[in-house]
């Protein structure tokens, strides 16, 4: 049995857009981007209102239990501002940030790649699923103990713990995204002679992203937490190390200041980096919402 | 080596089965230039499988497929538009796949959209913002945009209402006459087949074999409603079409 394929070639001749047209479209894109950025910042007010509610509850807790149990938000901020003057904050923060981001990139990269492969290949999924379940079943604290033995008191222990603790999330997201891809759309793309790469880029990837962004958001959030935990336990500097010192000194406002700093990092990485990228790539989604696409 | 020199598409002794169950066996088809062939049959007779084999979406288990054209397009039963692309980019999708420059494919997409009855402002909308009929119009425009030599229609207008179905059928007839493409039109609606096609192939639900083949008098587009109604009415009394109209008989068989 043989099937001859339609003869390739004979495509529509390519033509280049004229220069003024290009300039105009570039200008329009710039205006659109500025408009979008303004709207994104403006929508931040609602989020800020939510955070201030939390700060109010914090203040109430402080007034009930006193400074030793729960220092006031304002006091914490003052301590944090004081820290900003000294050198230890920059050092600790950059150490922690480097570890958390390395861990995140490795976890998201490995998890996404392995998950996508498992999504395409049923056999790979059958093999990888139990492995991931086992890795997920080992508590992060146990990984820290193992990583400490393997790496000693260095950043490597924190990075390894982040990767092992959070790559299963990206794995599951990518697996689910690829496995639930629309085969009907894929057949449509094939009917136009689209290559496997083109089909992945135009049909599977946009669908996959809607599974990946929540997974990546969870991964970056847990990366910060696990890094600080690993640093605290392995005594390897960073914000975790500073937390351990502050705890030893019973300096509760200082403990709160470091905690606020970690939370700020987590907020920035989610709302400052991942969410804007998500909004840009998933603009079409808002078309289905009652208020439509904001153009 | 083509068995028929001038034919655009030839299916020779094609057979297929899904999970060991034979759907049809020994199917032959010759599609000539500019010819619209309708494939009718009750659901489950394998007509969609034949179309998928002809379009290269499914590899046949038996037989040969010969193609003698540059490019084809498929209009599916569902619109199958990409939800993350605007109508313009959806219509231009086939052109983009074949490497056409952005400005040129946008111009072609806009022209095709107008031809199928979409408004210029629909071009920047996403598929969710379009009605079902508009989406199917966009799907037809997407197929026509690549200037295909052969178009495969897989029950394309089953989900749209009667009035719109007429409009879309007329649109296909006009496009076929203008662009002179060949088409394989799968449908279970005899009236639709009689309206759009030159030739009719009737499949049986029992073993997927060809029960009958006949030429429909006159050119598509020149037959008026009365003529179509008369043809359908007289044919529906014949035994070969009984399965199409008689669900009980199909079950007992």
From TrEMBL, chain A:
GO terms for biological process: transmembrane transport. The chain crosses the membrane at residues 40-58, 65-84, 104-124, 131-151, 157-179, 200-224, 255-274. Residues 93-273 form the ABC transmembrane type-1 domain. InterPro entries: MetI-like, MetI-like_sf. Keywords: Cell membrane, Membrane, Transmembrane, Transmembrane helix, Transport. It is a multi-pass membrane protein. It is found in: Cell membrane. It comes from the Bacteria. Belongs to the binding-protein-dependent transport system permease family. This is NitT/TauT family transport system permease protein.
From TrEMBL, chain B:
Keywords: ATP-binding, Nucleotide-binding, Transport. InterPro entries: AAA+_ATPase (IPR003593), ABC_transporter-like_ATP-bd (IPR003439), ABC_transporter-like_CS (IPR017871), ABC_transporter_ATP-bind (IPR050166), P-loop_NTPase (IPR027417). PROSITE patterns: ABC_TRANSPORTER_1 (PS00211), ABC_TRANSPORTER_2 (PS50893). Residues 9-230 form the ABC transporter domain. It holds the Pfam family ABC_tran. One of its GO terms (molecular function) is ATP hydrolysis activity. The keyword tRNA-binding does not apply. Belongs to the ABC transporter superfamily. This is NitT/TauT family transport system ATP-binding protein. It comes from Pseudochelatococcus contaminans. The lineage of its organism: Bacteria, Pseudomonadati, Pseudomonadota, Alphaproteobacteria, Hyphomicrobiales.
